[in-house]
Fold DUF1648 domain-containing protein.
Amino acid sequence: MTPEIRRARTAFWWVGVIIPLALIALAGVVMLAWLPDLPDPVATHWGAGEVDGYAPKWMPPVMLAGLGGGVVALFASIALLSHRPPQQGADTSIPPAGWSATARLLGAVSLGTAGMMSFLTVAIVGVQRGLSDAADAPDIAPWTPLFLLVGVGLAVAGWFLQPAVERPAEASGAAAQPLPLADHERAVWMKTVTIAKTGQVVLVIGVLVTTAMSVLLLARGIAGGWITAAVTLLLIVLVLTSLTFRVRASAAGLRVRSAAGWPRLEIPAAEIASTRSVRIDPFAEFGGWGYRFGTDGRRGFVLRAGEALEVTRTDGRVFVVTVDDATTAASVLAAAGQR
């Protein structure tokens, strides 16, 4: 690990984990100190200018600790698991993840989200101090722009508090040579690729966190819970359709299809200009896993770090899919493109 990456990781820990958790803890301590001055139950939601949701007065600090802490844990898991330093005895053919702008963004968003949630929860509780009935609590909707400003301001500050890490330039590999075949011969190459274990862990954590948020919000009768539940359902569908893909290279061209049947992509041999095997860092080049768009205009199914098949189409578009033995697949497609 280089000193530059070590500084970036340390800054992430402070910006994306330690300070956000400290803000949540500080807000929790303040609300616990206010408990004797609060009505029971307290107002937790306003609609049409009046209170329409209630909860026990101990619920706001508990919800902040659970939801806020869950968000911080989720972002930290994504950043740290996907940028783990290489372990002793690890496969040296897979390039180390290093550190990326995506991790820097996750740290900034974690700080902004935790700060906004802490400020919002303290404001909800603070306006009810000294009231005998929570129904008399003033609507906090006019304060919404201020909450958003706090969140955005902290996120921007979090971004600049973390150093940028330059990604070293990599030499471009040569185009693949066609696989030698007789006129009467045809080659078919097939592989199955599954998202990296780190990606699987992060996706499961994401589903669990959003599910817990949905259950908690719906149990409290908060309308926003239905939105969170819809997001959770969408996330589950995306996870189930993006875990495993089957890749096929043949005289017909390239076909990449999810084990669930969708999504899928086909590139006919007549549309293939060139192919080659490349090395890919999902977060540094594509911002994560799944069907991604790269910073350099490439797109494709990026499921793990390491070897990938890159196909340049006749219209200039470039498609990639991470898969083992990409060199052979590239040669098969190069031969198909010549026929």
